[in-house]
Every structure is written in structure tokens, then in C-alpha cells.
Amino acid sequence: MRFVWLVVSVLAFIFCYAASTPGLLAIGLLVGFGSMFCAVLAFAAARIESTSRPDSALLTPEVLAEATERAKRQRAAAQPVPVARPVIPQQPREQP
């Protein structure tokens, strides 16, 4: 279908070149740019579909909840690393 949109676009622009009135030119341009837009979206959709995972590879809600719980347990079991605070020396105050 994407190549059909491309052919329609080319034919519409050829029609625009041969149009004798401004109305036909406008119709040809609308059809040409509209079909070119559809062709770009069709090519993008085909590219996305070719690199996407199949629906059978998606995680079910149960597996996703289990993975979330496991991550929470691992975070809770991890020992927090103590943060060393720098020691700022106190300067003696001058007496007036």
C-alpha cells in the first residue's frame, strides 16, 4: 500500500504540471501532498513493525508485578552505604 501512495503522489504532481486552471492545480497539489504524507507514514509504520517485538513476547501483568516485587525486595535487602560528612574546623571567635 505504501508504494500505491507513492505512485498516486507522483501521478498527482504530473497532473499538477499539466493542469490548465488554478482549481485543478489546487486539487492536484492537495492530492499530491496528502498522498505523499500517507506514503511517509506508511513507510514509517512498516519500519517500526519490522523492528518491533511480537505480542507474544510482551510481559503479562502477573509477571510484571512479580518482577516489581522482586526489585523492591532486592532494594530493601541492600545495605545502605554510609555517607561520610566532611569535618569543618571551628575557628575561634575574636573577643571585642
From TrEMBL:
The keyword Transmembrane applies. It comes from the Bacteria. Residues 70-96 are annotated as: Disordered. Residues 76-96 have a biased composition (Low complexity). Keywords: Membrane, Transmembrane, Transmembrane helix. The chain crosses the membrane at residues 28-46. This is Uncharacterized protein.
